Please model this.
Amino acid sequence: MSLSKPFYETDYRSSFADGRRERSRSNHAKIIAAGIDLLGKGEYSPSAARVAEVAGVGIRSVFRHFEDMDTLYRQLGAEVELKVWPIMLQQLEGVTWKERIVSLAKRRTTIYEIIFHYRIAADLRRFDSPYLTQDHRRVLRIEFEMINACLSETARADAIGTAGIYALLSFANWQSLRQDQELSAEDARNVVLRLLDSALSRLSDS
Model:
């Protein structure tokens, strides 16, 4: 009959290392969750100490996982993007280009509500962050290309008309309706759709 190893021959280093890795993963997740929670409550520039407090970890843990707050914002942005990509990738409804633009507008207002607080926070920080500035341009380019893909060739030729559509469906417009005019999400959406309907009526159907 074989005997088990004596306790003094047991390698505890492996289980200790596994425990440290698990705590590290747990703390990382807590920090991300805390950052998203704070932004969601309108705290657009939380300090590392504030994030650590909400996460229930030491401030050293914050900087152990993220070199600086800019690095944390990168991770927060990635987490927020994961939430909206499935919505963005859904097929647009409609047969005509105008119907697809309306479908895109409805989808975009839904996305804007999901990313609202993070987008504002990122906009506030991007002037001090080359990464967030670059990411802002990337997002604008995606938004522009998604609208452009819906437009007919005739519509694209109308520079003034299409510029109006870009402005209507921009986050800046949504933020103004929701924050400055203090409209509900439903009312803000209805404003966007009514103005879009008016703008589309001035453009050719073909």
